[in-house]
Amino acid sequence: MKTTVLTISLAAAVLVSGCAAPTADRVAQFGPSSGTLSFKENRENDAGMVEQTSALDALMRDIVRNSTIKHAAVGAAVGCGISVLAASDASGCLRAAAAGGVVGAVNGNLAGKREVAQRMELVSANDLVRSIRKSNDQLDDITTHLPQMLAQQQEDVATLNQLKASGAISEHAYDAQLADIRTSRAEVAEALVLSADQAKLAQNNLAEAADQGQTGLEWHIRAIEQMERETLSARSTISLL
Q1: Who's near 120: CB < 8 A, 6+ residues apart?
Q2: Considering only Cβ atoms within 10 Å of each terminal Cβ, which end of the chain, N or C, has fewer?
Q3: How far apart are CA 76 and CA 101, in angstroms?
Q4: C-beta of residue 183 within 8 angstroms of C-beta of residue 219
């Protein structure tokens, strides 16, 4: 009991002794068991997580841009329809279009097939792969460190409640610390929701490209869908206190 009282008293002394300084309420250390991390350092770690989740949202917006159809097929691709070009009678349609002067000589040889494939690539699969990998790396880092941040915040809230109940800190100091924690949680949660929204939009974009005839997008759609699930799962672990 004496040890507990002494620990609280020391923590309160650190908090109260520097009340004149703007950051004084955030530099309390609560005994040897808490190590060297102070309230100030914990809140700096919270800010780092806010930055990481904001960066994830920016990366997911890149995926949306890379998944957006940037141009329409032209020439024979328009005349025949992208979906037709993917079908068995595509070459016949293209030959007829060429005969009518719609496009130059697309005669079914290797060069012609490459041209058709290029016209049908409505989004860049390679750019998408790079964006997806960057986003996955960022998301992995977040899911690794988010539980640590939330656990530390819960410890800080418990300590603040103990200090407040004992009268060791002022109502103002308590409210300021709790507000900082709530704000960081809300910002992290919002960024994760926005990232999930971007993932859903990117999936819809790729589905549209596939409907218009671009092939080979199955892996990209599944990868983005998985990121959406993981992002929403991370958001579900956050309570807003």
Answers
A1: 73, 77, 82, 85, 86, 213, 214, 215
A2: N
A3: 9
A4: no
Q: Are residues 88 and 134 in the same domain?
A: no
* Residue where a domain stops, chosen among 102, 120, 138: 120
Q: Which amino acid is at 75?
A: G
Q: Are residues 162 and 61 in the same domain?
A: yes
CA neighbor of 203 nearest in space, from 66, 59, 57: 66
Domain membership flag for residue 200:
yes
> 120 pLDDT band (50/70/90 cuts)?
low
The confidence score (pLDDT) of residue 5 equals 43
Cα end-to-end span (Å), the chain: 30
Distance CA 234, CA 52 (A): 13
- Provide the residue count of the chain: 241
The verdict on residue 5 lying in a domain is no
The identity of residue 167, as a single letter, is: G
- Rounded Cα distance between 38 and 229, Å, is 34
Instruction: Decide if pLDDT at 141 tops 90.
Output: yes
